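Re: [help] complex structure
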Amino acid sequence: MKLYENFSIKRFDKYLADKRNWDFFITCTSFEDRSISVSKQLKSYSSKIENTIIVNYPEHDNKNKKKNNTKKIIKNLNEVSRNLIIYDTKSVLEPSLGIKDFKEYIKKRSIEFKEKKILLDISVFTKPYFFLLLKILKEDYNVNVVDIVYTEVLNYNTNDQRKDLFSIGINRIEPIPGFNGSYQNAEEALITFIGFEGNRSLQIYQQISPKIIVVVNGMPSFQPSWHIMSMKRNIEFLKESKGYKNLFYTPTYDPFETIRVLKKIIDLIIIENPKLNITIAPLSTKPISLGIALYSLYHKNIKVIYPYPIKYNTDSSKGENKSWIYRINFNTLQEIY
Amino acid sequence: MNFISNKFEEKHPFDAVRAEDFGEDLFEFYEPLEQIVRNVSGVNIEGNRHIIIEGGRGTGKTMVLKHLEFNMQLKEFLYKNGNKKQIENINKEHIENFLKNKKFIGTYIHIKSGDFDNLCNELESLFKPILVLKITYELLKILIFLKWKNLIESKTEKMIVEKFVQQIKKPLIENVDNFEDIEKLINDKLLDSYNTITNAYSTYRLNEIKKMFEMPIVLHRNIIFKLFDFIISNVKCLNNKRIFIIIDEVEYLTEFQTRYITQLIKDSDDTSITFKVGTRCLPKTLKVGNTDEILKEFDDYRKIVITDALNAAHSGTKSHYSNLIKNILNKRLQKSSYFKGKRICDIEQLIPNISIEKEARDIVSGGTKHWIKFKNEMTKSKTKREINSIIDHIKYDKNPLIEKLNMLLIYRGYSPKKIKKLYKDFLEDKNKEYKNLYNKNAFNLLIQLYHDYRKDKRYAGIDTYIYLSSGITRIALELCGEALNTAYVYGYKTEHEKSIDIQQQSYSAKKISLKQYDGITKIPKWGIKVQSFINQIGTIFDEMHRDIYLVEPEPTHFETDISDLSDKACNIFNAALSYEYIQKKPSMKPKEKGKTKREDFIINRIFAPHFNISYKIRGRTVIPSGELEKLLIGNEEEKNKSRKNIIKMNTRRERVLEDQSILEI
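Output below.
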């Protein structure tokens, strides 16, 4: 049985063509143009949403870009959603605190997620936040099925020669809370899913000093040549780590194939080195990171490490492209693992 | 499928640069630097004192610490005694012989980034039992090995197990009879419980967690002091030995976590335990536990700054550092059948040195650009006839550096006749004054010669590479590795040639220099600011290298006072120091009488190719703290102004041409 046969990946607009409804729509505001895409599509296909939660991080918004996007999201959703809540998190860089507060907020409002139809737009959530959101949906609210939606970017500002494309500087490199891995003494195997920020891959590699390094690049990529660009922007890391010798590929839009590739890599590592600690660095696309999150939720000994930036870049991406919807069924995942 | 780790490769013997790359074979590649450190700092790494080794990435700190580990020591002992058996296959007698000669057994813990980051705030106290359990786990591996080799009796094992179980108050421990059971208990139960708790803390409040899980209660201090002492007293083959607890990369710990380690160091005086700690950068004060007490160097521990020690071993006429690096590189060549087969076993065959005189001749090669510049300068005060006469006196085609020195002496006011006599005597080895001047200025003059001909300075030869490495072993390896890789790209084969082309060597040095310069931005929080600061300093030195009067030849270090810096400037400066982009050097005597000593710093010499400056530690530049502050946190305009002030201040031209009369011919 192929793993991905249990799941579905569909173009979001085509999926919406048949009238759809959800009990909850959880999304996030951002400077990025694509943050409004899902709300726009929900509106144009007249989908029905019972409750919308818009998560809002505190960020400098000098050009009022985010403010304008938020207005547009609200305007779109006002036409399809019965209730709309804007939830302000305290900090974008402290996801654990943010999620604990979010849980309290949900509790105070007596919101119940169990057995509800949930749509989660991960396009502009930071990776630690959506990892933790998935974790609480599965473990705390016992949600069985979640629909995840993701909107591609039309173009990245790749003329920018800076090695940090989406974010500026590194504040700290830490495991994503709740994905700490194990305290057991062992050398590390580092699996780095590379993206466009080569500085981050290199720095993680240097700080982890793994015994084995495996590199996974996204291919096919969302746009032709992006997979080459990611290799190019990681050249220093690939050279220093010799990660190019253990190179794998996974489609940039497919979390389920990512799970299969990840499982294969980890099985291979374990056969040779059963005592190694496995660390994963999700520096690639959100759908790939979704695959990593789903795998790690079922393997508590895996550490997912993330380089928290000093701040996120506000003009790294341009426009919006296709949106994809992924149906996650935690019960089916449980059976597979 | 086999995963390839970054291991030693025959055709790329310099590419493996981390201790982790060698795994169990580390000892075969290890070049001891203990003796150098001992000579310079007077500290014996293998002695009974607690030691904190400070050193940035690639300095060899992990190599030194890992080398103290029980397995490494045992393997090295067997290897040196001609026994090439695997550790698993050796007998009781071998181990007894090894232990007879050893005063310690080492357990090694490598802290990685992110290992304990989630033990913050309300969970911070969990760090204590977790660390102690991890150390105990490592010690158990040694005990289990000794047991398998019949060096621990079952009665002793039982006593130790019993003693350990007494230290675990929660959860209730049952069916633990031997070392293997403890090992399992630590990994599968205790550490796993802590793991579950910290994972839960990501989405639950502490009060909720306390209701959900049972918190283990481990008497960690009893384990590390009493149990470990008990083991040393009761395991016969370990009697009177010390347990070295080696903890590497403690810079990844929080202040609370570091304080726990200092507490253990402070409290372990009358025990069998010695701590050997490795860190990138040591805070100025090491507070003990939750008190205001401070861990005192000399009284409580000895500190080794590894790059300082290696740089000191590289200064003056000492060649310890140079030999160490050459030995490391030669060992790699000798281990590679590709190079050994072609009898390339010495790094000087592969990356030979070239003299600065040859370099100068190569630049000039029949050209006259350096004379044109001189003539232009002279035209300001001399007639054409006078200039030609001066040139007749100071011209010496065979060595352009002598010509450049003669020009300098003219600028400085020496008479052409005197110069002619001086250099002629020097050529016959009769004049010390000129010899001193030549030795002091030749390298900077070589750089000026490059400027005259609008060429980039070459950085080639193994001695140059060793200078550029700035006491950081990994940089030397990277330079050699890059040179070899570049040579392969251009078709290098050991069948055809032994040495790598000079241009390719120099190209590689520039590449690594740029890579290091780009890498500065990776410093958390301060990267961009530090890079800008290094850029300011490099630009100042570059300008000063062009000074025709060469008031201070080869300016590569600066004297300043950092005590007056603002907090922000201080943070940036300290970040540059902790990442070795700036290195501290022993203070020199003040330039003027009556002034107090200030602190001396050098820019990491790997930046020399990037800024086209010298890589030696020669000329000192004074930077007042106010100007330093501006270079660190000023705006562009302030930085430019500050740079100009510093250059002006350090190239005082009034000293020059003080005796006009001697210019007469």
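Residues 255-272 of chain A form the longest helix (18 residues).
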